[in-house]
Every structure is written in C-alpha cells, then in structure tokens.
C-alpha cells in the first residue's frame, strides 16, 4: 500500500523536464563538491600558516607579520594574528561541515529522482 502512495506522489514530467532536472541536480552536486574542495584547501593553508606562526608565537610573540585583509596588506604582530587565523579556520571547518551535509541531502534527492523517473546519463557516442 505504501508503494502505491509513494508512486502516486511522483509528478509526471516530460522527457525534456526529466533531462533538465537531472542536469540541474548533477550540476548542483558538482558545484557543492567544488566549493567543498576549495574550502578544504583553504583550511589546509590556514593550518600550515598557523603551524609556522605558533612556532614564532612561542619564541617571539611581538614579531611582526603581515596579513592580507580585504585586499589590503596590514602589519600586525604574531600574537594578534594567530587567534584571528584560528577563528577563521574554525569558521571554514563549520562551513565545510554544513556544505557536506547539504551535499549528502542533495545526493539523496538526486538518487530518489533517478529512482523515481528511472533516469540515467545519456551516452553521447
């Protein structure tokens, strides 16, 4: 009984609408994956910079360093920059986790769509 209800919820779409929806969902997944990859590399860069600055923080906390903020290079001390970088890295990690959750949800929706409409990629030979 539940299978007939589930199938009745699927709205009939034309072949063209199915193809457009399939492409749109696929593009959204690729876009999310690209953004996640970009942010992961940015978080990794933050980690590398932090590891270097943490060494300097222990030896010479008043040492000057430069930071790019909104396209402007500003001079700060290591003790001022390290907490800001740690906060930024944590923020990036939270965004990555949020995007990964969105990706999982979108992937589930895409799989449901493919199953409901028996959709699969068109081979262009």
Give the topology.
Elements: H1 2-9, H2 15-59, E1 64-69, E2 72-77, H3 78-117
Antiparallel strand pairs: 1-2
Helix pairs in contact: 2-3
Compose a concise summary of this entry.
This protein is mainly alpha-helical. 74% of the residues lie in helices and 10% in strands.
Q: Bin the helical content.
A: over 70%
Give the quaternary arrangement of the chains.
single chain
End-to-end separation in angstroms reads 41 Å
Q: How large, in whole angstroms, is the Cα Rg?
A: 23 Å
Low-confidence stretches: 1-6
Structural class: mainly alpha
The share of residues in extended strands comes to 5-15%
Shape: rod-shaped
Number of helical segments? 3
Give the biggest sheet: 2 strands, antiparallel
Order of helices and strands: HHEEH
Average pLDDT value?
A: 91
The largest sheet has its strands arranged as 1-2
* Counted beta strands: 2
Please, could you describe this protein's structure?
The chain is mostly helical. It has 3 helices and 2 strands; from the N terminus they run H-H-E-E-H. It has a two-stranded antiparallel sheet with strand order 1-2. Strand 1 and strand 2 (72-77) form a beta hairpin. The two termini are 41 Å apart.
């Amino acid at each position: 009984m539940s299978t007939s209800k589930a199938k009745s919820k699927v709205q009939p779409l034309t072949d063209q609408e199915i193809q457009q929806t399939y492409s749109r969902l696929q593009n959204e997944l690729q876009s999310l994956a690209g953004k996640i990859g970009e942010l992961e590399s940015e978080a990794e860069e933050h980690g590398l910079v932090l590891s270097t600055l943490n060494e300097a923080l222990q030896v010479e906390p008043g040492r000057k360093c430069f930071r790019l903020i909104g396209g402007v290079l500003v001079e700060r001390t290591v003790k001022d920059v390290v907490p800001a970088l740690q906060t930024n890295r944590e923020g990036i990690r939270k965004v990555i986790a949020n995007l990964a959750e969105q990706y999982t949800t979108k992937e589930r929706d895409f799989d449901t769509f493919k199953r409901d409409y028996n959709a699969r990629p068109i081979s262009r030979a």
